[in-house]
Amino acid sequence: VEAINHAKAAEVPIIVAINKIDKPNADPSKIINDLYSHSIVSDKAGGDSIFVEVSAKEGTNIDKLEDAILLQAEMMELKSRYEGKSKGVVLESRVDSNKGVIATILVLEGSLDMSNLIVVGNAYGKVRKMTDDRGRNIKMAEPSVAVEIMGLDVTPSAGAFFSEVGEEKQARDIIEYRVKKEKDQKNLKNNLKSKEDIFKSVSANAKQYLNIIIK
Fold first, then answer.
1. CB within 8 A of 112, min separation 6: which ones?
2. pTM for the whole structure
């Protein structure tokens, strides 16, 4: 339900993979009927969502699921540049006691290479190691590829966007600007609260004066 709500809020199409059809008691029709209550209707029933019955364990219809994704991407004319500096988003991150900060990122534009310097949120670092979804070491990640990377100095937040930069000074300047901006916003918020407290403390019958300049 959470995934459906996120997809609807983002106004993106939904592809439904009905898994575990290899089980003896599998009943895809029940899943299809249950999804009706969330306004998810199969394209075969006049809706706009593609349904694919699969078995992740047996590998059944995984090729059909891939074809459905490619078809949807083609219909939406989803394109991305492969050349130039990379951009993307953090899917998740964690700290390993032996390996340090590990982040799973999705490349959206450009190509991310080993030793590239990236900035993400208030973190930055050179990509020291990069592995694909099967745990294999790779040297480059192109658009639509999710990889696990090592090399960041601090743990970034999930959902944060990363950008490749040319040199370390540029990375530090970007982070310094972001930290200052966050601090200014926090101070502004605290100041607004203090002003509200002042107005609340003023008697309801007392006159209140506010000096303003009209431009």
1. 86, 88, 105, 118, 127, 130, 140, 141, 147, 149, 164
2. 0.63
